[in-house]
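A quick aside before the break. I want you to see a complete sequence-to-structure record at least once, exactly as it would be stored in a machine-readable document. Don't worry about memorizing anything.
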Amino acid sequence: MDKVKEIVSEIKNGNPRPIYFLMGEEPYYIDRISQYIGDHVLTEDEKGFNQMVLYGKETSVDEVIANAKRFPMMAEHQVVIVKEAQHLSRTIEQFTAYADNPQPSTILVICYKYKKLDKRKKLYKSIQKNGILFESKKLYENQVGEWVRRTLSGRNYKIAPKACMMIVEFLGTDLSKINNELDKLTLVVPNTVEITPELVEQHIGISKDFNNFELKKAIGERNVQKAARIVDYFAQNPKDNPFVVTITLLNTFFTQLLQYHGLKDHSPGNVAKVLRVNPYFVNEFAVAAKNYPMKRVSAIISNLRKLDLKGKGVGASNLSQGDLLKEMLASIV
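That is the input. The structure line, written in C-alpha cells, reads:
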C-alpha cells in the first residue's frame, strides 16, 4: 500500500510523526507498521529507557498521555505503543487535548483494531493535523491474489496463478495468516524457482487436485466424474472443506458467469477487467458459457441460494455436508 510505504519512508529518513493512529478492519498493516516503528526508531541501547508498550485492556487514556508527556533519556525520541487500543473506545476522545499539542519528542503509536474514529469528532481532525491517521481496510477476496503476488514479488519470488488461487481459497482474506504461510514457503523454496501448485501442496498442505478451485473448474467444464470425486473427498474431509466456503465460491463463479453472458466484448482483457479476475482464468468463463446458457445460470444461482439456507439449517434439518454437496452438484450439472 502506498500509505504504508510513505510512513516507512518518513521513518527511514528520520522524520517520524508525533502520533500514529492506526485503525481499521485489517489488523495486518496495523501490526506491521507498529512493529516497524518499534524496531527502527530507537537503537537497542535507547529502547531500554525510551520504549514502552501498553495494552488497551490494562491501561487508561490518562495513563497513556502521562507516559507520552515524559521526556526521553539520552535519546532524541521516546516511543509509546498502545496495542489493542480498541478497548479504550469509550474514552478515546479524551486523547483530543494531547493530539492538539503532542509532545514533539514522543512517538505515540495507537493500534485501534477493528474500529474507526468518527470523522466528525475533534480527535480525528486533531490527529489529521498533527500526526498520521492510517485506515487499514479489509481486502476483497478478488484483491487478495494480487496482494499475494505483490508480496512474493517483493521477496523476488514468482507464483503460478493456480498456486496463488489455491492459497487464497484455502486461507481466505486473513493477511496475517497468509503471510505466515508465505514466510514458511519462502524459507524452504529458493527464489530461483516459481512457486507451483505442487509446492503449495507439499509445504502448505493444500491438495492441488481436491480443492474448490478444481471443483469450480470441473463444474464449468461439465466434467461430472471429476466434480463427483472432489465432492466425495469434501464429504469425507468436512473440517478442511466447509460447505459454506464451497457454495460461496460457486455462487461467485456463476454470478460472474452471468455477467460474462451479458458482455458484448469477450476479449480476455475486457473480461478480466469487468469480472475482476486474473486473465489466466478468463478461458474458464468462455468454456462454462458454452455449457451453461444465461437462463440456466440464473436458475443455478437461485438453487445455490436455497442450498446456502439449507446449509445454515433453514428449511432442512440433519442434512450432512455430504448430502448437501451431492444435492448441490446435482442441481448444477
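Two observations worth writing down. Residues 243-262 form the longest helix (20 residues). The mean pLDDT is 92. We'll return to this after the break.
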